[in-house]
């Protein structure tokens, strides 16, 4: 079984103003993006050719927007951490943010599919 190209746990996944899970998982594996609940149930998934990803310019912190087959999701990485542990990540002192790694993984995987 192939290793996922990207995985993040403890992700708050929301749609518009509705929170779908507070500790979900985002995974890129086998040419697909999967959004999962903390119990492993699938919220949504789509082939990477149908996925767009970017940084949420309107929200502070480590947040990304994902358009998965026409449905938009707000992904807040590090949702299970308190504000004290998240502050150093805002400044970028701990290397690339999870949002940046997610966006780059989507772009890399889409490039391989084209």
Explain how this protein is built.
This protein is of the alpha+beta class and 114 residues long. It has a single domain, classed as PH-domain like (Roll), CATH 2.30.29. The chain is built from two helices and seven strands; from the N terminus they run E-E-E-E-E-E-E-H-H. It has helices spanning 83-90, 98-113, and strands at residues 6-15, 18-29, 32-36, 42-47, 51-55, 63-68, 71-76. Strands 4-3-2-1-7-6-5 form a seven-stranded antiparallel sheet, covered by helices on one side. Strand 6 and strand 7 (71-76) form a beta hairpin. The longest helix has 16 residues, at 98-113. The chain is globular, with a radius of gyration of 13 Å. 26% of the residues are buried.
How large is the count of helical segments? 2
Largest sheet: 7 strands, antiparallel
Beta-strand percentage range: 35-45%
CATH class descriptor name: Mainly Beta
* Ends apart, CA distance between termini: 23 Å
CATH architecture: Roll
Overall shape: it is globular
The structural domain count equals 1
State the CATH topology. Answer: PH-domain like
Task: Give the full name of the CATH homologous superfamily.
Answer: Pleckstrin-homology domain (PH domain)/Phosphotyrosine-binding domain (PTB)
Give the rounded overall mean pLDDT: 83
**What is Rg?**
13 Å
Helix share, percent: 10-25%
- Find the structural class using helix and strand composition: alpha+beta
Number of strands: 7
Q: How are the strands of the biggest sheet laid out side by side?
A: 4-3-2-1-7-6-5
